[in-house]
Amino acid sequence: MSTKSKVLLVDDDESLLKLLTIRLLANNYEVSTANCASDALSELQQQHFDVLLTDLRMDDIDGMQLAEQVQQLYPTMPVVMMTAHGSIPDAVKATKQGVFAFLTKPIDKDELIDTLAKAVRLHGHSQGQQSNHHGIVTRSATMHHLLEQVRMVGAADVNVLISGASGTGKELLAKAVHENSNVSDGPFVAINCGAVPAELLESQLFGHKKGAFTGATTDHVGLFSQAEGGTLFLDEIGDMPLNLQVKLLRVLQEKTIRPVGHSEEIPVNVRVVSATHKDLPTAISENTFREDLYYRLNVVNLRLPALNERREDISLLAHYFCEQIAARQEQAVKRFSDDAMDLLLRHDWPGNIRQLQNVVEQVVALSPSELISAKQVALALQCEMESSTPIALNEAKKQFEREYLIRVLKMVDGNVAQAAKLAKRNRSDFYKLIKKHDIDAEQFAPSASK
């Protein structure tokens, strides 16, 4: 595939079209031309371009109207405006409407080439068509190849292991596998194995029978049963305790489960997709992960790249998050200044897409105008770096304790006495704990969800 940037050149002056085409070809651009806005829109529907270079004054639809339509259809495509009638009001209006740059005829060759180069750098040179597959927004060739693998493996009835750093979107990719599978009409059920206390995980996965243990006042349907006829996504599978790994391996081999306290095997028809940020071969060598389970789960491996390996997606994702926020809050879509986008593009993003989303949420919330400045982005990135440092041990213990109490209460439908027994604490101590963490046990009662 060509690595040249693609420019769509629009002007009703044939001689200027020819002159600019020669200049752009000489500077290693691929060029398509249109002599009116309607032809330009037709070209945009047929192929992807990296930059739109258009005249302001045209007979059918002027450049500003064309830019508005392009921004609605292709929101991340930079638009460079040319005019022989350059004026401050035109330039101000164009900038407010999101036009990337405003050039005055006669076009200076060096200024044109510099402007196009900057537009491609800030908005990402595309190796393929922009796309949104099941919430995965990308124009990265690596990601398009990965999504092609998802389409191929989706129809095959095999277990899939997704590997990738935290925040890269492993659950979204798992959903894409599900949506491309022959069980796409069935449920998609997800659990983070590292977020559930080890003593509760077995019951969460396989269910339990009433009376199976102290506090089990009702039968509990596990996630395998809830995912019947669909897909069960086991996130952070590398954090699963060894004793449960043995039981999971048996389930995958026998296609049956045995709820805690149950004497009979129950058949299940569930596709398993798992994910991890850990190096499982290393975990196997350290005897913290079973080799036989690894090979059972890892029939097909899909590796998600880190965000800094797909930098061409940064501007696309940033705009996508801005659009989501605007739709949620019913407000105008905010956009980044060129300097602000440059900061986003140069950042390493150790927290990947999740970190980018946090930064966008912050700057959109704090920006007083529709144009987000570089200063606001710099402050948000600084805050993210500070918040990514490890929290104090006492604070971590508090967070874990609160999450543990909530999970126990959920298991017993908010019955505090039964939850206290399950946690092996006396009732009065347990009441003090939930009060300390400002937890309302009644919200977990069955009647609360009706």
Number-wise, the strands total 16
Might you state the CATH topology name of the largest domain?
Answer: Rossmann fold
In percent, how much strand structure appears in the residues?
Answer: 5-15%
Q: Structural class from helices and strands?
A: alpha/beta
* CATH homologous superfamily placement of the largest domain: P-loop containing nucleotide triphosphate hydrolases
Q: Estimate nothing, just give the exact number of structural domains.
A: 4
Helix tally equals 19
Q: How far is the N terminus from the C terminus?
A: 55 Å
Major sheet details = 5 strands, parallel
What is the level 1 CATH name of the largest domain? Answer: Alpha Beta
- CATH-defined architecture of the largest domain: 3-Layer(aba) Sandwich
Largest sheet, order of strands side by side?
2-1-3-4-5
Query: What is the overall pLDDT average?
Result: 86
State the shape.
Answer: elongated
Helix content: 40-55%
Low-pLDDT runs of 5+ residues are: none
Write the topology of this structure.
Layout: E1 5-10, H1 14-26, E2 29-34, H2 37-46, E3 51-55, H3 63-73, E4 79-83, H4 88-96, E5 101-104, H5 109-123, E6 131-133, E7 136-138, H6 141-154, E8 160-163, H7 170-179, E9 188-192, H8 198-206, H9 223-226, E10 231-235, H10 242-254, E11 256-257, E12 266-267, E13 271-276, H11 280-285, H12 291-297, E14 300-303, H13 314-329, E15 335-336, H14 338-346, H15 352-366, E16 371-372, H16 374-387, H17 393-411, H18 416-422, H19 427-436
Parallel strand pairs: 1-2, 1-3, 3-4, 4-5, 8-13, 8-14, 9-10, 10-13, 15-16
Antiparallel strand pairs: 6-7, 11-12
Helix pairs in contact: 6-7, 13-15, 14-16, 15-16, 17-18, 18-19
